[in-house]
């Protein structure tokens, strides 16, 4: 695995712990915001769920390659936490371009399902995106509370990740991270109104469990 691949995996794992994903909450798995839209579209299990044809896969592959190049050029020469921080910074821009480009390739129902999967995989981090905040009519007070929850969760997740990064029991570490994600999601949902919770559940769609055998941007 390349250095960039390892960094993306670390970012994904950190995000997974960093924020309990709705995917975990609803029985799915996922990486968190570190796994961007282009990376999702490159994942075999996501492609299967979206029922992509060969032409769509080819076009989406080009979108993913552009995302990979953006990550490569944007993080060149960076290592460790600095590299991960830059990836987070780039994710909004890269995701924005990928979503627009994908919408020109996918059918409306495929775009809708992609967003459901995206929210599930992102988990708590999804609440930091402008589109979800608008769809749920998140107030300034709620946003501040959610930001605080996610920030604390990120710190705790990094500690869990670092504690398990020395060749220990990987499965045990992942289980702790999943539990942490669930707890974080519960804390965020406690800040939502009943109507917001109901709308959020609708936006998640049916549970989806992502499989990580596929390739994505930066690998």
From TrEMBL:
Instruction: List all Basic and acidic residues biased stretches.
Output: 61-73
Species classification: Bacteria, Pseudomonadati, Planctomycetota, Planctomycetia, Isosphaerales
Q: Where is this region: Disordered?
A: 61-82
Cleavable signal peptide: 1-23
Which protein are we looking at?
Periplasmic repressor CpxP
Tell me the superkingdom of the source. Answer: Bacteria
Q: Which UniProt keywords apply?
A: Signal
């Amino acid at each position: 695995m390349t250095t960039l691949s390892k960094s993306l995996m670390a970012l994904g794992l950190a995000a997974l712990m960093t924020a309990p994903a709705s995917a975990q909450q609803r029985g799915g798995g996922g990486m968190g915001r570190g796994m961007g839209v282009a990376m999702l579209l490159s994942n075999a299990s996501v492609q299967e769920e979206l029922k992509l044809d060969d032409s769509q896969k080819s076009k989406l592959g080009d979108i993913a390659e552009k995302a990979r190049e953006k990550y490569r050029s944007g993080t060149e020469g960076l290592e460790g936490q600095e590299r991960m921080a830059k990836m987070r910074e780039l994710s909004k821009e890269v995701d924005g371009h990928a979503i627009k480009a994908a919408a020109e390739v996918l059918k409306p129902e495929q775009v809708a399902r992609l967003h459901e999967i995206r929210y599930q995989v992102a988990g708590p981090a999804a609440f930091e995106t402008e589109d979800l905040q608008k769809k749920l009519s998140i107030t300034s007070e709620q946003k501040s509370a959610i930001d605080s929850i996610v920030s604390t969760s990120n710190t705790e997740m990094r500690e869990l990740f670092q504690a398990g990064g020395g060749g220990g029991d990987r499965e045990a570490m992942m289980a702790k991270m999943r539990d942490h994600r669930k707890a974080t999601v519960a804390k965020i949902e406690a800040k939502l109104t009943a109507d917001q919770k109901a709308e959020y559940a609708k936006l998640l769609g049916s549970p989806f469990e992502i499989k990580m055998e596929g390739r994505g941007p930066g690998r």
